Protein backbone atom coordinates (compact mmCIF):
# COMPACT_ATOMS: atom_id res chain seq x y z
CA UNK A 1 0.00 0.00 0.00
CA UNK A 2 1.36 3.48 -0.81
CA UNK A 3 2.10 5.79 2.08
CA UNK A 4 -0.04 8.84 2.67
CA UNK A 5 1.11 11.73 0.50
CA UNK A 6 2.52 14.83 2.17
CA UNK A 7 1.29 18.32 1.35
CA UNK A 8 4.36 18.99 -0.80
CA UNK A 9 3.52 16.11 -3.15
CA UNK A 10 -0.07 17.28 -3.52
CA UNK A 11 1.17 20.83 -4.14
CA UNK A 12 3.50 19.50 -6.84
CA UNK A 13 0.59 17.86 -8.67
CA UNK A 14 -1.46 21.07 -8.42
CA UNK A 15 1.53 23.06 -9.66
CA UNK A 16 1.96 20.98 -12.81
CA UNK A 17 -1.75 21.07 -13.53
CA UNK A 18 -1.50 24.88 -13.35
CA UNK A 19 1.61 24.93 -15.53
CA UNK A 20 -0.01 22.75 -18.19
CA UNK A 21 -3.06 25.00 -18.29
CA UNK A 22 -1.22 28.35 -18.15
CA UNK A 23 1.72 27.63 -20.45
CA UNK A 24 0.29 25.19 -23.01
CA UNK A 25 -3.50 24.77 -23.04
CA UNK A 26 -4.69 28.35 -22.47
CA UNK A 27 -2.37 30.10 -24.96
CA UNK A 28 -3.07 27.47 -27.63
CA UNK A 29 -6.83 27.88 -27.18
CA UNK A 30 -6.52 31.68 -27.10
CA UNK A 31 -4.59 31.68 -30.38
CA UNK A 32 -7.26 29.55 -32.01
CA UNK A 33 -10.09 31.72 -30.65
CA UNK A 34 -8.52 34.99 -31.78
CA UNK A 35 -6.72 34.04 -34.99
CA UNK A 36 -8.14 30.63 -35.96
CA UNK A 37 -4.56 29.35 -35.95
CA UNK A 38 -3.78 25.91 -34.56
CA UNK A 39 -0.77 26.50 -32.32
CA UNK A 40 -0.18 22.80 -31.68
CA UNK A 41 1.94 21.75 -34.65
CA UNK A 42 4.23 19.21 -33.00
CA UNK A 43 4.27 16.24 -35.41
CA UNK A 44 4.41 12.52 -34.65
CA UNK A 45 5.96 11.35 -37.92
CA UNK A 46 9.33 9.86 -38.86
CA UNK A 47 11.13 13.18 -39.35
CA UNK A 48 13.69 14.45 -36.85
CA UNK A 49 11.15 16.88 -35.42
CA UNK A 50 8.52 14.14 -35.34
CA UNK A 51 10.75 11.87 -33.27
CA UNK A 52 11.55 14.74 -30.92
CA UNK A 53 7.81 15.50 -30.73
CA UNK A 54 6.97 11.94 -29.71
CA UNK A 55 9.60 12.00 -26.98
CA UNK A 56 8.45 15.42 -25.79
CA UNK A 57 4.90 14.14 -25.40
CA UNK A 58 6.25 11.17 -23.46
CA UNK A 59 8.29 13.50 -21.27
CA UNK A 60 5.27 15.67 -20.44
CA UNK A 61 3.22 12.57 -19.71
CA UNK A 62 5.97 11.21 -17.47
CA UNK A 63 6.01 14.39 -15.39
CA UNK A 64 2.24 14.15 -14.99
CA UNK A 65 2.37 10.48 -13.98
CA UNK A 66 5.20 11.17 -11.55
CA UNK A 67 3.38 14.08 -9.90
CA UNK A 68 0.20 11.99 -9.62
CA UNK A 69 2.12 9.04 -8.16
CA UNK A 70 3.74 11.22 -5.50
CA UNK A 71 0.39 12.82 -4.69
CA UNK A 72 -1.08 9.33 -4.22
CA UNK A 73 1.64 8.51 -1.73
CA UNK A 74 4.14 6.47 -3.74
CA UNK A 75 7.34 6.32 -1.71
CA UNK A 76 10.43 8.13 -3.06
CA UNK A 77 12.30 4.88 -2.35
CA UNK A 78 10.24 3.22 -5.11
CA UNK A 79 11.44 5.91 -7.52
CA UNK A 80 15.13 5.44 -6.74
CA UNK A 81 15.63 7.95 -3.96
CA UNK A 82 18.90 9.92 -4.14
CA UNK A 83 19.83 10.92 -0.56
CA UNK A 84 22.94 12.82 -1.70
CA UNK A 85 20.70 15.39 -3.42
CA UNK A 86 18.28 15.82 -0.53
CA UNK A 87 18.23 18.70 1.91
CA UNK A 88 16.03 21.53 3.06
CA UNK A 89 18.04 24.19 1.19
CA UNK A 90 17.96 22.19 -2.05
CA UNK A 91 14.23 21.63 -1.75
CA UNK A 92 13.55 25.33 -1.13
CA UNK A 93 15.75 26.19 -4.12
CA UNK A 94 13.75 23.71 -6.19
CA UNK A 95 10.43 25.30 -5.26
CA UNK A 96 11.89 28.73 -6.04
CA UNK A 97 12.96 27.51 -9.48
CA UNK A 98 9.50 26.06 -10.10
CA UNK A 99 7.84 29.37 -9.21
CA UNK A 100 10.29 31.52 -11.17
CA UNK A 101 10.22 29.29 -14.24
CA UNK A 102 6.41 29.28 -14.34
CA UNK A 103 6.22 33.07 -14.17
CA UNK A 104 9.04 33.39 -16.72
CA UNK A 105 7.33 31.05 -19.21
CA UNK A 106 3.95 32.75 -18.87
CA UNK A 107 5.53 36.15 -19.58
CA UNK A 108 7.54 34.75 -22.52
CA UNK A 109 4.52 32.97 -23.98
CA UNK A 110 2.41 36.13 -23.71
CA UNK A 111 5.13 38.07 -25.51
CA UNK A 112 4.97 35.69 -28.47
CA UNK A 113 1.42 36.80 -29.35
CA UNK A 114 0.26 35.28 -32.63
CA UNK A 115 3.68 33.65 -33.13
CA UNK A 116 3.01 31.17 -30.31
CA UNK A 117 3.44 27.57 -31.46
CA UNK A 118 4.13 24.18 -29.93
CA UNK A 119 6.45 22.86 -32.61
CA UNK A 120 7.59 24.26 -35.95
CA UNK A 121 4.83 25.70 -38.11
CA UNK A 122 5.68 25.12 -41.76
CA UNK A 123 2.43 26.73 -43.00
CA UNK A 124 1.62 29.86 -40.94
CA UNK A 125 4.84 31.20 -39.50
CA UNK A 126 4.18 34.22 -37.28
CA UNK A 127 6.40 37.32 -37.11
CA UNK A 128 9.86 37.13 -35.56
CA UNK A 129 9.61 38.15 -31.89
CA UNK A 130 12.56 40.12 -30.49
CA UNK A 131 10.97 42.15 -27.69
CA UNK A 132 10.43 41.42 -24.01
CA UNK A 133 12.20 38.32 -22.72
CA UNK A 134 13.20 37.51 -26.30
CA UNK A 135 15.60 40.45 -26.08
CA UNK A 136 17.42 38.54 -23.33
CA UNK A 137 17.18 34.99 -24.65
CA UNK A 138 16.36 33.58 -28.08
CA UNK A 139 14.60 30.65 -26.41
CA UNK A 140 13.08 31.90 -23.14
CA UNK A 141 10.35 29.25 -22.95
CA UNK A 142 12.82 26.40 -23.39
CA UNK A 143 15.08 28.12 -20.87
CA UNK A 144 12.16 28.18 -18.45
CA UNK A 145 11.51 24.48 -19.05
CA UNK A 146 15.17 23.64 -18.38
CA UNK A 147 15.02 25.49 -15.05
CA UNK A 148 11.69 23.84 -14.31
CA UNK A 149 13.02 20.30 -14.70
CA UNK A 150 16.00 21.19 -12.51
CA UNK A 151 13.57 22.52 -9.91
CA UNK A 152 11.55 19.30 -10.08
CA UNK A 153 14.68 17.26 -9.43
CA UNK A 154 15.64 19.40 -6.41
CA UNK A 155 12.13 19.19 -4.96
CA UNK A 156 11.99 15.39 -5.41
CA UNK A 157 15.50 14.04 -5.99
CA UNK A 158 15.22 10.50 -7.33
CA UNK A 159 16.30 8.45 -10.32
CA UNK A 160 13.07 9.20 -12.20
CA UNK A 161 13.29 13.01 -11.90
CA UNK A 162 16.99 12.86 -12.76
CA UNK A 163 16.21 10.85 -15.91
CA UNK A 164 13.41 13.28 -16.81
CA UNK A 165 15.74 16.27 -16.40
CA UNK A 166 18.50 14.68 -18.51
CA UNK A 167 16.09 13.56 -21.24
CA UNK A 168 14.42 16.97 -21.30
CA UNK A 169 17.79 18.67 -21.62
CA UNK A 170 18.78 16.48 -24.59
CA UNK A 171 15.43 16.97 -26.34
CA UNK A 172 15.46 20.74 -25.90
CA UNK A 173 19.04 21.07 -27.14
CA UNK A 174 18.03 19.32 -30.38
CA UNK A 175 14.65 21.07 -30.76
CA UNK A 176 16.04 24.60 -30.42
CA UNK A 177 18.53 23.87 -33.19
CA UNK A 178 15.77 22.58 -35.45
CA UNK A 179 13.74 25.73 -34.73
CA UNK A 180 16.73 28.01 -35.29
CA UNK A 181 17.38 26.40 -38.68
CA UNK A 182 13.73 26.92 -39.61
CA UNK A 183 13.74 30.56 -38.50
CA UNK A 184 16.94 31.16 -40.41
CA UNK A 185 15.27 29.94 -43.60
CA UNK A 186 12.14 31.99 -42.93
CA UNK A 187 13.68 35.31 -41.89
CA UNK A 188 17.15 35.23 -43.44
CA UNK A 189 19.34 38.16 -42.46
CA UNK A 190 16.83 39.47 -39.89
CA UNK A 191 17.22 36.27 -37.90
CA UNK A 192 20.97 36.19 -38.48
CA UNK A 193 21.20 39.68 -36.97
CA UNK A 194 19.04 38.57 -34.06
CA UNK A 195 21.33 35.58 -33.45
CA UNK A 196 24.32 37.89 -33.36
CA UNK A 197 22.63 40.24 -30.90
CA UNK A 198 21.01 37.78 -28.47
CA UNK A 199 22.41 34.57 -27.00
CA UNK A 200 20.66 31.23 -27.43
CA UNK A 201 19.92 30.89 -23.72
CA UNK A 202 20.88 33.96 -21.72
Major β-sheet annotation: none
The DSSP helix count reads 6
Low-pLDDT residue spans: none
Question: Nearest-angstrom radius of gyration?
Answer: 18 Å
Summarize the structure.
The chain is mainly α and 202 residues long. The chain has six helices and no strands.
Describe the structure.
This protein has 202 residues and is mainly alpha-helical. 65% of the residues lie in helices and 0% in strands. The protein contains six helices and no strands. The mean pLDDT is 93.
Keywords:
202 residues; mainly alpha; elongated
SSE layout and pairing:
Blueprint: H1 7-35, H2 48-71, H3 88-112, H4 140-155, H5 159-187, H6 189-197
Helix pairs in contact: 1-2, 1-3, 2-5, 3-4, 4-5, 5-6
